[in-house]
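Structural prep section.
Before we set up the soaks we want a predicted structure of the protein with pyridoxal-5'-phosphate in place, mainly to decide which crystallisation condition to try first. Input record follows.
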Amino acid sequence: MTAIPESLSPSIQSLGSSPTLQINELTAQMEREGRRVFRFGLGESPFPVPAAAVKSLEKHASANAYLPVAGEATLRKAVADFHIRRYNIEADPDLVMIGPGSKQLMFLLQLCLECEVILPTPCWVSYAPQATIAGLNTTLIHTAYEEKWRLTPEKLDEQLSGKNPQAQLLILNFPGNPDGLTYSSDELKALAEVCRRHGVIVLSDEIYAELHHAGEHVSMARHYPEGTIIASGLSKWCGAGGWRLGTFIFPPVLKWLLKAMCKVASQSHSTVAAPIQFAAAEAYSASDEIEDYLLHCRRILKPLGNWCAETLSAAGVSVHKPTGAFYLYPDFSPFREVLKARGVTTSKQMCELLLEETGVAILAGEAFCRPEDDLTARLTYVNFDGTAVLQASREVPLEQELDERFFRQQMPNTLAGVEAIAEWCQDLA
Ligand code: PLP
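Run finished without errors. Recording the tokens verbatim:
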């Protein structure tokens, strides 16, 4: 009998497991032990899928045919129209690709390209591992707290200058996971000039666009239409991560890439589930219900994010007020010396100590491609029942801002968790 050999590909052997999953396991274990845990480690929308989309899904439950690889025609049109309407950009339905989550589309993109992947950090957890699996080299450009974690045109230009003519894929993400911050139109314009000069393909991950807290998202395609692929999907703004529906919009000159990705898709996932695509077409159509839903999501997230940032700032943590999504990216370097005295020198050790001493779970900066000794972490401030909070927000007159009193009633656990971090910091100092 011949033993079955372990024959993992080298690029997989070097792959770590998802840090989000690790923290989930740890917190679940603590809960089993009866300890109070604040789950600030997840990256999921707390809000329900809007009712019209759910109804549409029910209506299309019997749709059982395989749909076209690039996506169902009415959905591709609805996605293009959505982007044209909301971001004032050009989008051709024939250049829209639908996939089972934008994550999968990003993976296919990296499989299809022969290029270097440029990642400003902190960046979302999956870009770099996907590049590794696809056998691509990654170049990190570290941004700083003082730069509001933004990539500057100077740093990008310096990175690209003198490079060999290998193709470059720059991945931007704004409003950003993990930082909750975004680029202004002027900042995008300046980056676009550098990208144009160096012929860079930009994958602009705008999955949190609709969760810009002021509803003022500007797309990279406004300034760099010829080289930008816009990634988005239903997961964040529509509370539908589990539906697995992502979108890419290509510029005309990159049609060859869309075709290549469709070839790979046809040999791998084929297409997205038919009922989901029909329901998504409904979600992407203009409607008062969706407007109302988004209005309330933003109305909750903005003052809540500000409250969390202010509370941490008052405790001496360096953190910017968010402009979108549901994340904060606190920097605990003001506590470097006191943490060092307790044997803590890395973000991972810091998060472990915080979890152990307060029950608060946040994700170490290391997971976002930051240097190990960077004392940063991501805090997701949505550990509440989004359905109930959305309902409660609808009962408060719109001219009234949601305030701390509302949050104490509706999401006491979120406030208590942030206050636990603040107290921990005060005790450290
Ligand atoms: N991009 C960012 C920045 C994200 O935070 C996520 C999900 O966490 C994704 C992409 C992937 O989203 P999906 O595959 O659900 O479309």
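Observations: Residues 43, 101-103, 124, 173, 177, 205, 207, 233, 235, 241, 246 surround pyridoxal-5'-phosphate (CB under 6 Å).
Flagged for discussion at group meeting.
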